[in-house]
Amino acid sequence: MTDRRPYIGGNWKMNTNRETAATLTRDVVEAIGDRASRVDVAVFPPFPYLLTVGAVLRERNSPITLGAQDLWLNPDGAFTGEVSAEMLEDCGVRPVLAGHSERRQVIGEADELVNLKVRRTLEAGLDCVLCVGETLEQRDAGETDKVNERQVRAGLAEVTPAQMPRVVIAYEPVWAIGTGKTATPDDAQDAHAKIRSVLTDLYGQHLADATRIIYGGSMKPGNAAELIAQPDIDGGLIGGASLKGADFGQIVAAAAG
Ligand code: PEP
């Protein structure tokens, strides 16, 4: 066992509206109860609802952290459609996702851009959840560890040891995201252990041991406990199941032990 504090993030993706974002936040706060004292919990709503969700969290005096799904590299200026770290911070955001597979696969973000976003997030004083993971083709070709290593090394290029305590790595096999398919606890543990060994090579044992590596890919109440029980799995990044307060609460309960 480790003394890493579990981390559970709810990635709402492009879901909810002004009303349901507020309702879901209230449901999540209620479902989690006082377990947020034993687990770091963050929710990542769509940009337009950040203030709404943040207001509910404040009103409930909740320790749940407000996160954002993306950012752009410049503080302000002529970047139509983009949102800066400064704007997010102004809205009360702490953690920001980088390299989510939907941005890599659907929007076409490459490792270099993901790295720039990671660095910008950290330079701005925010926390970063760097997502990595192989596609089904890469898995079938036996390239899982190679892909994860490349994405971790590229994503963390020029990230300093002093910044690493503000980084969480999310291992999210692309074939498991939103599909109902989940990596077996053994396979996920194996991938996490390999990622930790890459971190050891980059930053040394101490920082590698301290860094949370969370699993994402159809994690739900029925499989969360077994996954999180693995020695190198420090929590989860949850998509579908984060849209139901009770389900998300059960996953947080599994992480709280
Ligand atoms: C995700 O979006 O990061 C994710 C893991 O989604 P899901 O839980 O729906 O597979």
Short description:
This protein has 257 residues and is of the alpha/beta class. It has helices spanning 18-32, 50-59, 85-90, 101-107, 111-123, 136-140, 144-155, 185-203, 205-210, 221-228, 245-256; strands spanning 7-11, 40-44, 65-66, 95-98, 127-132, 167-171, 213-216, 235-238. It binds phosphoenolpyruvate (PEP).
State the main characteristics.
257 residues, alpha/beta, TIM Barrel, 11 helices, 14% strand, globular, binds phosphoenolpyruvate
Write the layout of secondary structure elements.
Layout: E1 7-11, H1 18-32, E2 40-44, H2 50-59, E3 65-66, H3 85-90, E4 95-98, H4 101-107, H5 111-123, E5 127-132, H6 136-140, H7 144-155, E6 167-171, H8 185-203, H9 205-210, E7 213-216, H10 221-228, E8 235-238, H11 245-256
Parallel strand pairs: 1-2, 1-8, 2-3, 4-5, 5-6, 6-7, 7-8
Bound molecules: phosphoenolpyruvate (PEP).
Phosphoenolpyruvate is lined by residues 11, 13, 172, 177-178, 216-219, 237-241.
What features would you describe in this structure?
This protein has helices spanning 18-32, 50-59, 85-90, 101-107, 111-123, 136-140, 144-155, 185-203, 205-210, 221-228, 245-256, and strands at 7-11, 40-44, 65-66, 95-98, 127-132, 167-171, 213-216, 235-238. The protein is of the alpha/beta class. The chain has a single domain (7-256), classed as TIM Barrel, CATH 3.20.20.70. It has an eight-stranded parallel β-sheet, with helices on one face. α1 (18-32) packs parallel to α2, α1 runs parallel beside α11 and α10 packs parallel to α11 (245-256). The radius of gyration is 17 Å and the shape is globular. The protein starts with 6 loop residues before the first strand and ends with a helix. The mean pLDDT is 97. The protein binds phosphoenolpyruvate. Phosphoenolpyruvate binds next to β8.
